[in-house]
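Collaborator request, handled under Task 6.
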Amino acid sequence: MPVTTHLMLEQGDIGFGKMQSIFGAARLWGASVAVSYAMQAVVSVLAAGAVLWVWLKPGGYPVKAAALAAGTLLVTPYVVDYDLVLLALPIAWLSWDAMHSAFLPWEKSILFFVWLFPLFARVLSMFASLPLTPLVLALLMLAIVRRGAAAEAVYRSNSQ
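Structure tokens returned to the collaborator:
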């Protein structure tokens, strides 16, 4: 495991442009291994906090499951572009939840963008040095947190 971590993750034997985490983005832009791990740690703590917040609030399982799936992609430093197929889960769960309540402003556009983005993730990272996947994942997590907050507001208004 240490050899794999050193070669694949830290040295980028698979190519930093293929890695879609904040760690990969930092390494692609020339950050040291220590700085890259520190950035990944900050993003991981924020993602875990967002997932925990959504799970502790009243609301449906689809939103909670979407938070967990999106958080998983944000937490790990070793996310390769083909792992973005996991985005289908939070997109489907948020869409299902929205179809049974209502779409929030810009939510359809965000979900469409997140669905379409993996087609361009590798090209943007490898050829344009624009590793945008961490930002797209953060946008998705923000949409999930916003939906969780909306569910909490409905729950509070119904319980009064």
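The cover message to the collaborator said: "The two ends are 54 Å apart (CA to CA). The chain has eight helices and no strands. Please let us know whether this matches your experimental observations."
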